[in-house]
Amino acid sequence: MQRNGIGLRQIKEEPEFWGTDGFRQEVRVGGGEEHAMDIITDGAVMVLQGDFDARSTFQVRDVLYGQLAAYGDVVVDLSGVTVVDMTALRLLAAASRRTAHDGHHLTLRDCSPIVRRMLHLSRLARVVELERVRASA
């Protein structure tokens, strides 16, 4: 799909469920062989892989709020996130505030350097809870 000379991926309205086995759920967001985001849930852990931007925010929000309703305390693993934008970070900040208000925790795990940089530049690092990394001796 082309728009104003920029190539865009076509995103389906509904995420495509491509595997479930009990407590583990995998959601592929995007159309065709190319996809923008994979969302994998395993208990209270949610793993995001790929482009976490405005195109995938709605699907991530739906899965995230479902996880929060089911478990209360949720860990979001961002180690596989290759692209992030302010829309995605605002979603995480809003979910963190809502979760804290309800007396629970939303923890971000394994943030890549780009995610950490964006969190600090936007000052959203003050709002979200980052998992502490043990310093090696």
Q: How does this structure look, described?
A:
With 137 residues, the protein is α/β, with parallel strands linked by helices. The chain contains 3 helices and 9 strands. Residues 1-24 have low confidence and may be disordered. The strands form 2 sheets. It has a 7-stranded mixed sheet with strand order 3-4-5-6-7-8-9. It has one domain (2-130): 2-Layer Sandwich (Transcription Regulator spoIIAA), CATH 3.30.750.24. Helix 1 runs parallel beside helix 2 (86-101).
Q: Distance N terminus to C terminus?
A: 51 Å
The amount of beta strand, in percent, is 25-35%
Number of strands: 9
Level-1 CATH class name? Alpha Beta
Q: Please state the overall shape, judged from the principal axes of the Cα atoms.
A: globular
Number of helical regions: 3
* Low-pLDDT segments: 1-24
Amount of helix: 25-40%
CATH homologous superfamily heading: STAS domain
Order of helices and strands: EEEEEEHEHEHE
Give Rg in angstroms: 15 Å
For this structure, the CATH topology is: Transcription Regulator spoIIAA
Strand order of the largest sheet: 3-4-5-6-7-8-9
Specify the CATH architecture: 2-Layer Sandwich
Whole-number total of structural domains: 1
Main beta sheet strand tally, sense and closure: 7 strands, mixed
What is the structural class? alpha/beta
Pfam family, one: STAS_2
InterPro entries: MlaB-like_STAS, MlaB_ABC_Transporter, STAS_dom, STAS_dom_sf
Protein name: Anti-anti-sigma factor
Organism: Nocardioides terrae
